[in-house]
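Incident log, structure service

09:12 report received: a user says their structure output differs between two submissions of the same chain.
09:20 pulled the input from the user's history:
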Amino acid sequence: MHYGIYTPNYGAEMSARALAELAREAEEAGWEGFFIWDHIQVSKSLRAPVLDPWVTLAAIAVNTKRIRLGAAVTPVARRRPWKLARETVTLDHLSQGRLILAVGLGFPPDAEFAHFGEDPDAKVRAAKLDEGLDILAGLWRGKPFTYHGQYYSIAKTVFLPRTFQSPRIPIWVGGFWPHKTPFRRAARWDGAFPLKTGGAMKKRDLEDIRAYIQQHRTATTPFDLVMIGYTPGNDADKARKIIAPYRAGGLTWWLESLFQVHDSIAAMRRRIRQGPPQVE
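09:34 re-ran on a clean worker, output below:
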């Protein structure tokens, strides 16, 4: 099991410097990952500072040495895949191979897409996501690459440098269970980041997700199952009781959400310093 921090990168007290310092403290406290959000605006009614995830992750990368980092999740349909390829490769080298790319359709579609004149249709966003992932994997190799899809077309090109990590940057795919399409997509890559429609994730849900992915997966490389949640930093026994069933269900990453305290840097720091739950 791996344990990471999951925090929104918006709010009155937020800055790239503050999050970079929190990531350093998380590393010192024994957390293994630090993940932020990738939003243009969280909702049409939000009136709070929102930080760009990639600039913030660059600050986190140079202020840490071991902790894995990333945004969860990046709506690939909202980005030009070749620009995202440049950003991710640069960050992968800057962090010396600590980047994980978590991707999804993007939410909410009205605030993140329609509000800015982009197509919010789920099928369109899904098709752009699939094409975008193929383009990222192709460009990351640093070899001659061409692509002709429904939404994107690339003439023969070579992107250098190739990724710091080999064979490439790990990709986690987000989706809402029990919808199956996101998890067939995840089976092609390196991990699944599931949420559950209409309720809380249970051990049985994780077991069903893992079984479904195994039915559709052809690669034999390791596969991560990632979940966000809350544990009390001052009650180790209660934390173990919360996480143990998920671990038994196949969970490989637990991301401790700081959403409830993200408006207070001091409260975020207190939870981070308490350290990750330990479930053996």
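09:41 both user submissions now match this output. Likely a transient worker issue. Closing.
09:42 reviewer note: The chain has one domain: 2-274. The longest strand covers residues 171-177.
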